[in-house]
Amino acid sequence: MDNRVYIFDTTLRDGEQVPGCQLNTVEKIEVARALEQLGVDVIEAGFPISSPGDFKSVVEISKAVTWPVICALTRAVEKDIDVAAESLQYAKRGRIHTGIGTSPYHIQYKLNSNPEEILERAVAAVKYAKRYVEDVEFYAEDAGRSDNVYLARVVEAVIKAGATVVNIPDTTGYCLPHQFGEKIKFLVDNVPNIDKAIISTHCHNDLGMATANSISGILNGARQVEVTINGIGERAGNTSLEEVVMTLRSHKELELFTNINTKNIYKTSRLVSSLMNMPVQPNKAIVGRNAFAHSSGIHQDGVLKNRENYEIIDPVEVGISESSIVLTARSGRAALKHRLEVLGVELDKEKLDQVYQDFLNLADKKKDIKEDDLLALVGAHDGFGDRRIKLDFLQVVTGKNLVPMATVRLDIAGEKFSATESGNGPVDAAIKAVKDIIHRKVTLQEFLIQAITRGSDDIGKVHMQVEFEESVYNGFGANTDIITASVEAFIDALNKIGNKQKASGKG
Predict the structure, then answer these.
(1) Do residue 343 and residue 423 come from a single domain?
(2) Residues of the chain by 3-state class (helix, strand, coil), percent to 5
(3) 282-320: per-residue pLDDT in tens?
(4) Could you tell me which of 484, 260, 473, 263 has the C-alpha nearest to residue 383?
(5) Percentage above 70 pLDDT, the chain
(6) Cβ-count burial 344-371 (b if 16+ within 10 Å, e if not)
(7) What's the predicted TM-score (pTM) here?
(8) Strands 42-46 and 69-73, how do they pair?
(9) Which helix (H) or strand (E) holds 96?
(10) Do the Cβ atoms of 15 and 228 come closer than 8 Å?
(11) Is 282 inside a domain boundary?
(12) Are residues 98 and 12 in the same domain?
């Protein structure tokens, strides 16, 4: 059996059936060209008889795309097939995809028919499509819930009628992986002419098993898999292209391969997501924002030592430049050190320990830490020395028609001192309270707050410049609470005054 697995992409047909995700013809052409660059073998461009727009899209995609087979969907109805054939007139390689339901549910309740009549209609549709194109694919809708013996009869008959591909859809996403695999194997073992056609899978994700079912089908003899970018599609979606392709690529022992240029996966995913206005869930395999993101300290340390400790796929293989080390409260020193080194900041163990403690305090308050947050934290420790004065407690009362009041408690060399002051604002009140405790004539020369631009949970960065005895000192603070950041910046400057005096013998 051939080890090549053909990728049949139905993003523009089944994927586009998602409510609110419809594309115009120009957008469909853009996606089709991206799929061609990706290396898909077949593009199901639409259901031509369903609307004039779908018909036009198939026509224009046929003109715009060169290498993939262009496929048009039909029911087992002659008019459908006529229109599909017309829409494919410009295709370099065209395929008509026709079929009918084969499960008891569809035969009885949807089609109000019987098994023998359905068999006749299936054969007639394939023969009629064969008048127009050599490449005819037959789908046995709801094959996942079809009786295997009857399904084998239908498959044998349509292959005899000229079908080059037989599609075995799990239309409702009902099958368990072993059940779907057994269904494909049953056809391989019991359809005498099965070697005359390619078996295709088309699995839906209603129970979250579309990819597992597709892989099971491939392992049991299917050599075409019908997929969509990002797994979009009717209801819970279709089998995800990127998941199937990277599964086969990761499991080299299977000796199965596709023609997909995997380095185009991520950008194609972004394109489809953007055009269809359908965000990719962050934890989506392969293409989700968090697919190659590590936030646990243990995982981060492992990845930094050797990527393969926690990654079975190199993100470069799918078009992502590198793994992401996301700094959170669960991150360890190794991740912090790595991120700082990337930013060009190298700290010795002592300084790293100090910054790490401040980092943890910040991370408990902030969802994730950005690069400029880190630089602010490092800046707060510029001129490292003894942090003799520490902010132990801060309470501020302020509001409209209230006089701002601040209570500050400082830890100075292990002893606690408190003061309460009023001011013309909460920061002024807090700074006055600190001055009451330290009894030093310090003049505030400059007070800068970095603009908050990324939401209400973002960090406030404060830079203070103070003068003491004709010398200027810089203090830095970083906190989600801007008043706290201001006080910490002021205290940072005070500590630098103390360190300088100690160094000169004045302290």
Answers:
(1) no
(2) 45, 20, 35
(3) 899 999 988 887 777 777 778 778 878 878 899 889 998
(4) 473
(5) 92
(6) ebebeeeebebbbebbeebbeebeebee
(7) 0.75
(8) parallel
(9) strand 94-101
(10) yes
(11) no
(12) yes
